[in-house]
Amino acid sequence: MDRYCLMGHPVGHSKSPWIHARFAELTGQALAYDARLVPLDGFAEAVRRFADEGGRGCNVTVPFKFEAATQFASVLTPRAARAGAANTLLLVDGRVALADNTDGIGLVTDLERNAGIALAGCRLLLVGAGGAAAGALGPLLEARPAELQVVNRSPAKARDLLQSHGPLARSAGVRFEAGGLEEAGQGFDVVINATASSLGGGKVPVAPSVLRRGALAYDMMYGPAARGFLDWARGQGAHAQDGLGMLVEQAAESFRVWRGLRPPAAQVLQELRARLAEPAP
Q1: Residue 203 annotated among the catalytic residues of the structure
Q2: What is the pTM assigned to this prediction?
Q3: Which pLDDT does position 6 carry in this prediction?
Protein backbone atom coordinates (compact mmCIF):
# COMPACT_ATOMS: atom_id res chain seq x y z
CA MET A 1 0.00 0.00 0.00
CA ASP A 2 1.40 3.42 -0.98
CA ARG A 3 2.11 5.69 1.96
CA TYR A 4 1.60 9.44 2.29
CA CYS A 5 1.66 11.76 5.25
CA LEU A 6 1.31 15.28 6.61
CA MET A 7 4.36 16.84 8.26
CA GLY A 8 4.02 19.81 10.57
CA HIS A 9 4.23 21.15 14.09
CA PRO A 10 1.51 20.92 15.36
CA VAL A 11 -0.56 18.38 13.40
CA GLY A 12 -3.01 16.98 15.96
CA HIS A 13 -5.84 19.22 14.79
CA SER A 14 -5.45 18.34 11.11
CA LYS A 15 -8.37 17.08 9.03
CA SER A 16 -6.03 15.93 6.24
CA PRO A 17 -5.86 12.24 7.24
CA TRP A 18 -9.66 11.96 7.13
CA ILE A 19 -9.87 13.93 3.86
CA HIS A 20 -7.31 11.78 2.06
CA ALA A 21 -8.81 8.57 3.44
CA ARG A 22 -12.15 9.59 1.88
CA PHE A 23 -10.44 10.54 -1.38
CA ALA A 24 -8.82 7.11 -1.51
CA GLU A 25 -12.07 5.33 -0.69
CA LEU A 26 -14.10 7.22 -3.28
CA THR A 27 -11.52 6.75 -6.05
CA GLY A 28 -10.57 3.15 -5.25
CA GLN A 29 -6.93 4.02 -4.52
CA ALA A 30 -4.95 1.80 -2.15
CA LEU A 31 -3.04 4.18 0.08
CA ALA A 32 -2.41 5.07 3.70
CA TYR A 33 -2.10 8.65 4.98
CA ASP A 34 -1.13 9.76 8.47
CA ALA A 35 -0.01 12.88 10.31
CA ARG A 36 3.55 13.17 11.62
CA LEU A 37 4.59 15.63 14.30
CA VAL A 38 8.03 16.82 13.20
CA PRO A 39 10.54 18.45 15.59
CA LEU A 40 11.06 22.11 14.76
CA ASP A 41 14.68 21.41 13.81
CA GLY A 42 14.03 18.05 12.14
CA PHE A 43 12.11 18.65 8.92
CA ALA A 44 14.80 17.69 6.41
CA GLU A 45 15.62 14.52 8.33
CA ALA A 46 11.93 13.61 8.57
CA VAL A 47 11.53 13.92 4.79
CA ARG A 48 14.63 11.81 4.16
CA ARG A 49 13.46 9.15 6.61
CA PHE A 50 9.99 8.98 5.08
CA ALA A 51 11.47 8.69 1.60
CA ASP A 52 13.79 5.90 2.76
CA GLU A 53 10.76 4.11 4.21
CA GLY A 54 9.15 4.07 0.78
CA GLY A 55 6.86 7.07 1.23
CA ARG A 56 5.34 8.34 -2.00
CA GLY A 57 4.52 11.91 -1.00
CA CYS A 58 3.79 14.28 1.84
CA ASN A 59 1.90 17.42 2.60
CA VAL A 60 3.77 20.13 4.50
CA THR A 61 2.13 22.55 6.90
CA VAL A 62 3.35 25.23 9.31
CA PRO A 63 6.06 26.02 10.07
CA PHE A 64 7.86 24.07 7.33
CA LYS A 65 6.35 25.34 4.04
CA PHE A 66 9.13 27.83 3.39
CA GLU A 67 11.76 25.29 4.42
CA ALA A 68 10.23 22.78 1.99
CA ALA A 69 10.65 25.31 -0.82
CA THR A 70 14.20 26.37 0.00
CA GLN A 71 15.60 22.92 0.78
CA PHE A 72 14.12 21.35 -2.34
CA ALA A 73 14.36 24.40 -4.59
CA SER A 74 15.81 22.47 -7.54
CA VAL A 75 12.45 20.76 -8.07
CA LEU A 76 10.03 23.63 -7.44
CA THR A 77 6.98 24.06 -9.66
CA PRO A 78 6.36 27.62 -10.93
CA ARG A 79 3.55 28.18 -8.42
CA ALA A 80 5.76 27.04 -5.53
CA ALA A 81 8.59 29.23 -6.79
CA ARG A 82 6.35 32.31 -6.93
CA ALA A 83 5.02 31.65 -3.42
CA GLY A 84 8.44 30.83 -2.03
CA ALA A 85 6.73 27.96 -0.20
CA ALA A 86 5.72 24.37 -0.86
CA ASN A 87 3.00 22.28 0.75
CA THR A 88 3.18 19.16 -1.45
CA LEU A 89 6.19 16.92 -2.05
CA LEU A 90 6.18 14.06 -4.55
CA LEU A 91 8.65 11.30 -3.68
CA VAL A 92 10.00 8.91 -6.31
CA ASP A 93 12.65 6.23 -5.72
CA GLY A 94 13.60 7.66 -2.35
CA ARG A 95 14.06 11.25 -3.48
CA VAL A 96 11.99 14.42 -3.79
CA ALA A 97 10.91 14.55 -7.43
CA LEU A 98 8.65 17.60 -7.12
CA ALA A 99 7.87 20.38 -4.65
CA ASP A 100 4.56 22.11 -5.31
CA ASN A 101 2.17 24.60 -3.72
CA THR A 102 -1.51 23.72 -4.03
CA ASP A 103 -2.88 26.33 -1.58
CA GLY A 104 -3.61 29.01 -4.15
CA ILE A 105 -5.31 26.75 -6.67
CA GLY A 106 -7.31 25.31 -3.77
CA LEU A 107 -8.54 28.79 -2.91
CA VAL A 108 -9.40 29.68 -6.51
CA THR A 109 -11.24 26.39 -7.01
CA ASP A 110 -13.24 26.90 -3.82
CA LEU A 111 -14.20 30.43 -4.86
CA GLU A 112 -15.16 29.53 -8.42
CA ARG A 113 -16.65 26.05 -8.06
CA ASN A 114 -18.06 26.01 -4.55
CA ALA A 115 -18.91 29.67 -3.97
CA GLY A 116 -19.90 30.28 -7.60
CA ILE A 117 -17.74 33.40 -7.97
CA ALA A 118 -16.45 34.32 -11.42
CA LEU A 119 -13.08 35.84 -10.57
CA ALA A 120 -12.37 36.99 -14.12
CA GLY A 121 -13.12 40.69 -14.35
CA CYS A 122 -13.91 41.23 -10.66
CA ARG A 123 -12.31 43.60 -8.16
CA LEU A 124 -10.46 41.64 -5.49
CA LEU A 125 -8.86 42.69 -2.19
CA LEU A 126 -6.35 40.41 -0.44
CA VAL A 127 -5.75 41.36 3.20
CA GLY A 128 -2.39 40.17 4.48
CA ALA A 129 1.01 39.58 2.92
CA GLY A 130 2.36 36.58 4.82
CA GLY A 131 2.77 33.00 3.71
CA ALA A 132 -0.94 32.38 3.14
CA ALA A 133 -1.23 35.42 0.89
CA ALA A 134 1.97 34.57 -1.00
CA GLY A 135 0.69 31.08 -1.71
CA ALA A 136 -2.64 32.37 -3.02
CA LEU A 137 -1.47 35.31 -5.08
CA GLY A 138 -0.22 33.57 -8.23
CA PRO A 139 -3.38 31.54 -8.91
CA LEU A 140 -5.55 34.55 -8.06
CA LEU A 141 -3.73 36.62 -10.69
CA GLU A 142 -3.98 33.78 -13.20
CA ALA A 143 -7.78 33.87 -12.71
CA ARG A 144 -7.59 37.33 -14.37
CA PRO A 145 -9.54 39.64 -12.07
CA ALA A 146 -9.81 43.18 -13.36
CA GLU A 147 -8.06 44.45 -10.24
CA LEU A 148 -6.23 42.89 -7.32
CA GLN A 149 -5.04 44.91 -4.36
CA VAL A 150 -2.89 43.54 -1.52
CA VAL A 151 -2.88 45.43 1.79
CA ASN A 152 -0.95 44.61 4.93
CA ARG A 153 -0.08 46.05 8.33
CA SER A 154 3.48 46.34 7.02
CA PRO A 155 3.18 48.05 3.60
CA ALA A 156 6.70 46.93 2.69
CA LYS A 157 5.68 43.25 2.79
CA ALA A 158 2.72 43.95 0.53
CA ARG A 159 4.96 45.80 -1.92
CA ASP A 160 7.40 42.88 -1.91
CA LEU A 161 4.56 40.75 -3.31
CA LEU A 162 3.84 43.48 -5.84
CA GLN A 163 7.42 43.29 -7.04
CA SER A 164 7.66 39.49 -7.13
CA HIS A 165 4.30 38.99 -8.86
CA GLY A 166 4.28 42.10 -11.04
CA PRO A 167 5.33 40.30 -14.26
CA LEU A 168 2.57 37.72 -13.83
CA ALA A 169 0.01 40.46 -13.22
CA ARG A 170 1.08 42.32 -16.35
CA SER A 171 0.94 39.20 -18.49
CA ALA A 172 -2.55 38.43 -17.15
CA GLY A 173 -3.73 41.99 -17.74
CA VAL A 174 -4.54 42.58 -14.07
CA ARG A 175 -4.36 46.00 -12.41
CA PHE A 176 -2.20 45.11 -9.40
CA GLU A 177 -1.60 47.40 -6.41
CA ALA A 178 -0.22 47.05 -2.89
CA GLY A 179 0.08 49.11 0.27
CA GLY A 180 -0.85 49.52 3.91
CA LEU A 181 -4.18 48.63 5.49
CA GLU A 182 -5.27 52.27 5.46
CA GLU A 183 -4.67 52.38 1.69
CA ALA A 184 -7.31 49.77 0.88
CA GLY A 185 -9.79 50.96 -1.72
CA GLN A 186 -13.56 50.66 -1.60
CA GLY A 187 -16.32 48.57 -3.09
CA PHE A 188 -14.53 45.28 -3.85
CA ASP A 189 -16.43 42.28 -5.20
CA VAL A 190 -14.36 39.78 -3.19
CA VAL A 191 -12.42 40.46 0.02
CA ILE A 192 -10.11 37.66 1.18
CA ASN A 193 -8.73 37.66 4.71
CA ALA A 194 -5.30 36.00 4.75
CA THR A 195 -4.47 37.26 8.26
CA ALA A 196 -5.08 35.68 11.65
CA SER A 197 -7.19 38.63 12.80
CA SER A 198 -9.97 36.48 14.24
CA LEU A 199 -7.62 34.59 16.52
CA GLY A 200 -7.65 36.02 20.01
CA GLY A 201 -10.58 38.27 19.21
CA GLY A 202 -8.60 40.76 17.15
CA LYS A 203 -10.57 43.34 15.22
CA VAL A 204 -11.01 43.14 11.46
CA PRO A 205 -8.06 45.00 9.93
CA VAL A 206 -9.97 46.83 7.16
CA ALA A 207 -12.90 49.24 7.05
CA PRO A 208 -16.43 48.14 6.05
CA SER A 209 -16.16 50.36 2.97
CA VAL A 210 -13.97 47.73 1.27
CA LEU A 211 -17.14 45.68 0.70
CA ARG A 212 -19.56 46.54 -2.06
CA ARG A 213 -23.18 45.58 -1.51
CA GLY A 214 -23.52 41.83 -1.95
CA ALA A 215 -19.75 41.23 -1.91
CA LEU A 216 -18.19 37.95 -0.84
CA ALA A 217 -16.02 38.10 2.28
CA TYR A 218 -13.80 35.03 2.53
CA ASP A 219 -11.58 33.97 5.43
CA MET A 220 -8.84 31.45 4.66
CA MET A 221 -9.30 29.98 8.13
CA TYR A 222 -12.30 27.92 9.20
CA GLY A 223 -14.17 27.12 12.40
CA PRO A 224 -13.74 29.42 15.42
CA ALA A 225 -10.61 30.96 13.87
CA ALA A 226 -12.74 32.53 11.11
CA ARG A 227 -15.80 33.46 13.16
CA GLY A 228 -14.90 37.07 13.96
CA PHE A 229 -14.26 38.05 10.36
CA LEU A 230 -17.34 36.22 9.06
CA ASP A 231 -19.62 37.78 11.70
CA TRP A 232 -18.25 41.21 10.80
CA ALA A 233 -18.89 40.60 7.11
CA ARG A 234 -22.47 39.46 7.66
CA GLY A 235 -23.04 42.53 9.79
CA GLN A 236 -22.10 44.64 6.74
CA GLY A 237 -24.59 42.78 4.53
CA ALA A 238 -21.93 40.75 2.71
CA HIS A 239 -21.94 37.06 1.93
CA ALA A 240 -19.45 35.25 4.15
CA GLN A 241 -17.53 32.01 3.66
CA ASP A 242 -14.78 30.28 5.58
CA GLY A 243 -11.76 28.43 4.20
CA LEU A 244 -12.85 24.83 4.79
CA GLY A 245 -13.41 24.43 1.05
CA MET A 246 -9.90 25.72 0.39
CA LEU A 247 -8.56 23.04 2.74
CA VAL A 248 -10.38 20.28 0.85
CA GLU A 249 -9.60 21.65 -2.61
CA GLN A 250 -5.88 22.07 -1.96
CA ALA A 251 -5.85 18.49 -0.67
CA ALA A 252 -7.61 17.37 -3.85
CA GLU A 253 -4.91 19.04 -5.94
CA SER A 254 -2.20 17.32 -3.89
CA PHE A 255 -4.00 14.01 -4.46
CA ARG A 256 -4.02 14.73 -8.20
CA VAL A 257 -0.28 15.47 -8.17
CA TRP A 258 0.39 12.18 -6.41
CA ARG A 259 -2.14 9.86 -8.04
CA GLY A 260 -2.89 11.43 -11.43
CA LEU A 261 -6.64 11.80 -10.87
CA ARG A 262 -8.84 14.33 -9.18
CA PRO A 263 -11.04 13.08 -6.31
CA PRO A 264 -14.67 14.25 -5.75
CA ALA A 265 -13.76 17.22 -3.58
CA ALA A 266 -17.28 18.72 -3.48
CA GLN A 267 -18.69 15.54 -1.95
CA VAL A 268 -15.92 15.32 0.63
CA LEU A 269 -16.37 19.00 1.53
CA GLN A 270 -20.08 18.43 2.13
CA GLU A 271 -19.35 15.40 4.30
CA LEU A 272 -16.67 17.26 6.27
CA ARG A 273 -18.98 20.19 6.99
CA ALA A 274 -21.58 17.73 8.27
CA ARG A 275 -18.99 16.05 10.50
CA LEU A 276 -17.83 19.36 11.96
CA ALA A 277 -21.44 20.38 12.64
CA GLU A 278 -22.08 17.27 14.74
CA PRO A 279 -21.99 17.84 18.52
CA ALA A 280 -18.98 16.37 20.31
CA PRO A 281 -19.76 13.01 21.99
Answers
A1: no
A2: 0.95
A3: 98
